[in-house]
Design brief:
Layout (H helix, E strand, L loop, with lengths): L22 H13 L3 E5 L3 H6 L10 E4 L5 H14 L6 E7 H6 L2 H9 L5 E6 L34 H6 L5 E5 L4 H12 L5 E6 L3 H4 L6 H10 L6 E4 L3 E4 L8 H5 L10 H24 L2
Parallel strand pairs: 1-2, 1-3, 3-4, 4-6, 5-6
Antiparallel strand pairs: 5-7, 7-8
Helix pairs in contact: 1-7, 3-5
Bound molecules: thiamine diphosphate (TPP), iron/sulfur cluster and magnesium ion.
């Protein structure tokens, strides 16, 4: 159990409409707190947009503009330029999107913003599917996971967005999890202090989408980190990889067992997934040890 050093500034309010037990609510509280008051937000269709809601019923004290699903990066770029024209260059532009809006539908606008190295902080709440529309597969959905549109399991692996973004040589990319809230706050604060494009992925176990119990979202996220399925990392300048948690202490079975989306797996499927995680982890370790 982690004791976190945390004082809530109240930027995320009660009365929000996240599913009871969704770890996105806890994450949102920490992220909005860490980003602070001098922030303008951009948000695109996703659970996040529903949770934060629209004015005057919004559950946040931070101002958000609601954009379209395909254009988070472009919206955030425009907001940053408008603020700069007003002499508010130090105001943080925070962009919130889901994995569908990041890995798939908004990838072109994120890539363009990253190529221009726009000064934005982009957070992807990665629940590994199109969840607010009923749980369809996205390109972030992991190999063999069942979704509404891949009921027998997704036949391909999760797209590696870290490597795609690293190829843009942006200053900062990180992953974090609601099971590691101090890590989350520290990474958001670090990203905020850097000029240029920063992207942080937050693992969000989706209760209905993954078939996780209402009281098990944070536990599931922790198992994902400990099994090495969702490594907590930083990538600086697109080349310098470091692992925040450098030990893989569990087998993948502990993580899979918490989720109904993997109920259909055979022993052979489980072995295959373990091999994939081991291989990805070994490559990551080698990169981190090489300092690049
Ligand atoms: C271009 C476009 N296609 C489809 C939609 C419908 N739509 C709204 S939210 C959403 C799901 C987004 O998934 P994701 O970004 O992963 O966010 P989540 O709901 O999982 O939080 C979809 C498909 C849309 N708004 N715009
Ligand atoms: S659908 Fe999933 S990600 Fe969305 S609010 Fe509910 S539990 Fe959270
Ligand atoms: Mg999603």
């Amino acid at each position: 159990m982690e004791k976190i050093d945390y004082r809530d500034e109240g930027r995320f309010c009660s009365g929000h409409v996240a599913c009871a037990g969704c770890a996105e609510a806890i994450s949102m509280r920490v992220i909005l707190n860490a980003v602070g008051e001098d922030t303008v937000g951009v948000i695109v269709p996703s659970c996040t947009a529903v949770i934060l809601g629209g004015y005057p019923m919004s559950s946040t004290k931070t101002s958000f503009i609601h954009g379209t699903l395909e254009s988070a990066g472009a919206f955030a770029s425009g907001v940053k330029r408008a603020l700069r024209a007003q002499g508010r260059d130090d105001t943080t532009v925070l962009c919130l999107a889901g994995d569908g809006g990041t890995y798939d539908i908004g990838l072109q606008s994120l890539s363009s913003a990253a190529e221009r190295n726009e000064d934005i902080l982009y957070i992807c709440f990665d629940n590994e599917g199109y969840m607010n529309t009923g749980g369809q597969k996205s390109s972030s959905t992991p190999h063999k996971a069942a979704t509404g549109s891949t009921p027998l399991g997704k036949p391909t692996r999760k797209k590696n967005m870290i490597e795609i973004l690293a190829a843009h040589r942006i200053p900062y990319i990180a992953t974090t999890s609601p099971s590691h809230l101090s890590d989350m706050a520290a990474k958001v604060k670090k990203a905020k202090s850097i000029r240029g494009t920063k992207v942080i992925f937050v693992l969000i176990p989706c209760l209905p989408g993954w078939g996780v119990a209402e009281n098990a979202a944070v536990k599931t996220a922790r198992l994902g980190v400990e099994a090495g399925v969702f490594p907590l990392i930083e990538v600086e300048g697109g080349v310098k990889y470091s692992l925040t948690v450098d030990q893989k202490t569990r087998r993948i079975d502990d993580y899979l067992g918490e989720q109904k989306r993997y109920n259909h797996l055979s022993d052979e499927d489980r072995r295959e997934l373990q091999e994939e995680v081991d291989d990805t982890w070994a490559r990551l370790l080698a990169r981190a040890e090489a300092g690049e």
